[in-house]
Amino acid sequence: MLFRQLEPRTARTSAEVIKFALWPFAVMMVLNRVFIKAINGFVTDDYRPVYNASFEFLNGRPLYTADFSSVDPHYLYYPSGTLLIAPVAIIDYELSRWLFIGLNAAAILLAWYLLLRLFKFGLGSIAAPALLLAMFASETVTNTLVFTNVNGCLLLAELVFITLLLARKDLWAGVALGLSIAVKPTLAPLLLVAAVRGQWKVFITALGVPLTLTAIAWPLSADPEKFFTHVLPYLAETRDYFNSSVGGNGLYYGLPEWLILLVKVLMAGVVAVSLWLLWRYYRHDELFFVTTFSGVLLTAWFLLPSLGQMYYSMMVFPFLMTVVLRNSVLRNWPAWLAIFGFMTYDKWLSDRWQDVGRNLEYLRVTFGWGLLLIVVFCVLGDRYLAARREGRLQFGIDPIWIESAPDSRDGTDEPAPVAPVEETPPHREDPVAPVEDREPALK
Question: What InterPro entries does its record include (predicted)?
Answer without folding.
Answer: GT87 (IPR018584)
